[in-house]
Specification:
27% strand, alpha+beta
Length: 85
């Protein structure tokens, strides 16, 4: 487990689960850590992670999140319901 950032720091991924260090051949999951005391991880945080992950070679579709105050998934449930209709 480690982190990832570009040389320009335009992309920063808090968590990278990989098969080995220092150079991974397979990325098991990228993720984000947010230690907000009163605000859970929300759609903005997830969208930022998804956008940044495209810069990680070998990243899979799985994601990990760590939060001090939970996650707000109401946007996810709504979008899933819309996709099912």
């Amino acid at each position: 487990m480690g982190g990832f950032w570009t040389r320009t720091n335009s992309t920063e991924i808090d968590i990278i689960g990989a098969d080995r260090s220092p150079i991974a051949t397979r990325v098991a999951y990228p993720g984000t850590i947010k230690w907000h005391q009163t605000t859970p991880i929300d759609q903005i945080d997830i969208n930022r992670l998804v956008a940044d992950v495209v810069n990680v070679t070998g990243a899979c579709r799985k994601r990990a999140t760590v939060s001090g105050s939970g996650m707000n998934l109401s946007w996810f449930v709504t979008s899933r319901q819309q996709n099912l209709t």
